[in-house]
Amino acid sequence: MAKLTVSDLDLEGKKVLMRVDFNVPIKDGVIGDDNRIQAALPTIKFVLDHKGKAILFSHLGRIKKEEDKKGLSLRPVAERLSNLLNKPVTFVPVTEGQQLEDAINKLTDGSVLLVENTRYEDVVNGEYVKRESGNDPKLGEYWASLGDEYINDAFGTAHRQHASNVGIAEAMHKSGKPVAAGFLMEKEIQFLGEAVNNPQRPFVAILGGAKVSDKIGVIDNLLSKADKIIIGGGMTYTFYAAKGIKVGDSLVEKDKIDVAKSILEKGGNKIVLPSDNVVAKSFNNDAEHKVVEGDIDDGWMALDIGPKSIDEFEKVLKDAKTVVWNGPMGVFEMSNFAQGTLKVGEFLGSLTDATTIVGGGDSTAAVKQLGVADKLTHISTGGGASLQYLEGKTLPGIAAIDNK
Ligand code: AMP
Question: 253-283 b/e with 16+ CB inside 10 Å = b?
């Protein structure tokens, strides 16, 4: 169902509450990667250009005790945002009360304010009360009372039920105020939603990463939707064990072998496993290593897919019209075992006739490292959220946005 979006709203002169994802790495007050701030700019600029008063909320890190607050202020983000927008950003160092209300009342049309880290509300008077991350309805109601409209542009937290994304939206509904998606959220829903519910075929999913247990839900949901599911990374070897292929010292989740068996039975030839692997003597970049096909002997562990598998995967991918990729094909952090992941990323970048969607930290890092990120259709900004979307789950943050 289509969701209400920021472009459907009448923004002029309105107090526009916006949930953005400014959860960026900050060390000693210095921001590392500001991608997430950049990603929120289109929606913020749109609101400002249409003379709305933007009141921004975001979480940053996790706060479990009073001392955690010190290093987790959003103040440095306000400065960076101000540079990026080339206009002043009012930073309010609190999350509720007179100081915040006065600052909001002083806003002029087309100006912007950033509220302190919403997770400051998780610790009140030294106690870990989780007002924000436990979705205290009073907090959502209070924040909702501060504005006329609410926009959620934080896809990365859409799988969580917090006061700043769900509580506030519900309170807005109750008072008859609109709840809309920002452009970033709209894009995520559009691409992930299309891929899962209405893909151009052939639709191929590539799933990697360490554990089968993290991806069972995704595989289960995609079994009935995808034409092929390519499996790589550490979880491959639980599938090997299920097929009776020797795994040596490779990563295996013994308690998931039966699940892997039933996935293989259900999936039949939809499931594509690597036929060769790069195996090493130990979990170390400098360890002795070689390529083997099929069985892996004791004393060796598979840390990457092999060249033949890469060729086979490319054959499956070359005619695909929709590709979703989540999770590395091997121990990508170690250069000797990064080839599988890099080759898959490179190949996706060369597919000009397909919708290509990448999610998850390692796969995203791979396509960025390769410089092919801008050749892909969509890079999801939410790891956990995009996995849950692929599992076919309803994400509370998205469910709380008004339908058109
Ligand atoms: P995930 O967080 O589930 O996406 O898994 C990512 C992690 O899986 C990365 O840290 C990889 O190093 C790890 N990984 C990928 N392939 C293997 C493998 N064959 N053996 C052990 N770990 C792996």
Answer: beebbebbbebbeebeebbbbbebbbbbeee
Cβ atoms < 10 Å from Cβ of 243: 11
pLDDT digits (tens, 9 = 90+) for 87-98: 999 999 999 999
Residues β-bridged to residue 204: 228, 323
CB contact at 8 A, 263 and 271: yes
Question: Which residue owns the Cα nearest ligand 1 atom 11?
Answer: 331
Q: Find out whether the beta carbon of 359 lies less than 6 Å from any atom of ligand 1.
A: no
Q: How close is the Cα of 45 to the center of ligand 1, in Å?
A: 38
Q: Is the pLDDT of residue 8 over 80?
A: yes
CA-302 nearest atom, ligand 1: 19
Residue 173 CB: number of other CB atoms within 10 A?
15
232 lines ligand 1 (CB under 6 A): no
Which of 325, 339, 362 has most ligand 1 atoms within 8 Å of CB, for mutation? 362
Amino acid identity of residue 228, one-letter, is: K
Active site residues: 36, 211, 361, 384
> Coil, strand or helix: which one is 248?
coil
335 is in an annotated binding site: no
Report how far ligand 1's centroid is from the alpha carbon of 203 (Å): 24
Size of the chain in residues = 404
Which has the closest alpha carbon to 313: 301, 330, 296, 290?
330
pLDDT in tens, 27-70: 988 998 898 999 999 999 999 999 999 999 999 999 999 999 99
| Residue 302 CB less than 6 A away from ligand 1 | yes
- Pairing type for strands 123-124 and 276-280 reads unpaired
Distance 115 CA to ligand 1 centre (A): 37
Q: Is there a binding annotation on residue 80? A: no
Each residue of 381-400: pLDDT tens digit? 888 899 999 999 989 999 99
Reported pTM: 0.88
Place of tokens 């299309």: 194
Give which of 135, 40, 57, 63 is closest to 95, Cα–Cα.
57
- Indicate which residue's Cα is closest to atom 20 of ligand 1: 234
Vertex 116: Cα angle to 36 and 155 (nearest 5)? 35
